[in-house]
Every structure is written in C-alpha cells, then in structure tokens.
Amino acid sequence: MSTDPEKLLTSELDSGDLNERLAVAGRGTSRLTLVLAAAALAVVSFLGGIAMHSALGGRSPAVRQPQAQQPQQQPQQQGRGGTAGTISRVEGDAVYIKGRDGQEVKVVLSAQTSVLITQRGSARDLAPGDTVAVQGERGEDGTVTARQVTEQPPGR
Predict the structure, then answer these.
(1) Sign (positive or negative) of CA dihedral 116, 85, 127, 89
(2) Which residues pair with 148 in a beta bridge?
C-alpha cells in the first residue's frame, strides 16, 4: 500500500492490511514501559516523602538526645504550679528553691502544706542543701503556695 495521501484516499482498502495494522496497534504497553513508569513513580514518591518530612517536622520526636545529668540538682518542674530544685534558704514560712536554670523560686508554706521527708515532717525539717519537689499553686508573681513538699534522696 502506498503512503501518498492522494493515492491512499483513491485506492481500495485492503481488509487484510487493516487487520494487520490493528493487531500491531492493539498490542498495548510494553513491559519496559511499565517497569520504567513504576520506577519513576517510586522515585517521585520517595522524593515527595522527603520533602514532606522536611516541611512538617524535621526530627522524629521519638529520637531524643540524652542530656548530661548534673549531680545534686533537680530540673525545675513547673507543670501545674509546682517546682523542684535545691533549697537555698529557709525564712519563716517561706522556702527558697534554686532550680537547675539558676532561678530562685519562693515557696510559701502554710498549715495545710504537708512536708514529706522519708517520713512525715514539718517545715522545720527543711534545710539548705535539701533537694525537694513542691506541688502547689503558682501565683502571678511566681511565688508557689505549697500543698506538699517532698524531700528527694541525695543524688537524685
């Protein structure tokens, strides 16, 4: 069959030739094409995941770096109004606690405050150098009104 368009239009169509062309055209996509498309999709997905990870988080929260521990100091715990640290001084019904960050917090003790020192104690049992955990309410000025003071074992 000729490839000249004018002759193609004026010539009679050979049905055997048309069937052969349709069979060749209907073969579908080759395996190589499918493999290359799958590989391209995998690469694009991987790069998209990297971009998404960078945009949304960077480091995974499950991976934490260990922190160097300093002996005889407790981190200052400020959740729910409490604090923790080392007693720097005791003045009447107030105990001053120095946290790991060096900040000093005034803790006010009342008759309702329980002080636990391995066994039940009182405010008189607290001394400078003791490590304590305090639970209570934090005021606007940063002062904590203690509900409970618990002495921590040395070196903890």
Answers:
(1) negative
(2) 114, 135
Can you tell me the distance from the alpha carbon of 124 to that of 83, in angstroms, rounded to the nearest whole number?
Answer: 19
85 bridge partner residues: 132
DSSP state of 102: S
Residue 143: both structure tokens together:
């002062």
Look at residues 119, 121, 123, 150 and name the one whose alpha carbon lies nearest to residue 134.
150
Of 41, 23, 43, 39, the closest CA to residue 31 belongs to 39
Q: What's the whole-number average pLDDT of the chain?
A: 75
User: For residue range 44-92, what is the model confidence (pLDDT) as tens digits?
Assistant: 888 887 777 666 654 444 444 444 444 444 444 445 678 888 899 999 9
Q: 103: Cβ–Cβ under 8 A, 6 or more apart, which residues?
A: 76
Tokens of 85: 């640290």
- Number of other residues whose CB lies within 10 A of the CB of residue 39: 10
H-type alpha helices, the chain: 5-10, 15-25, 31-56
- At 106 the pLDDT is 92
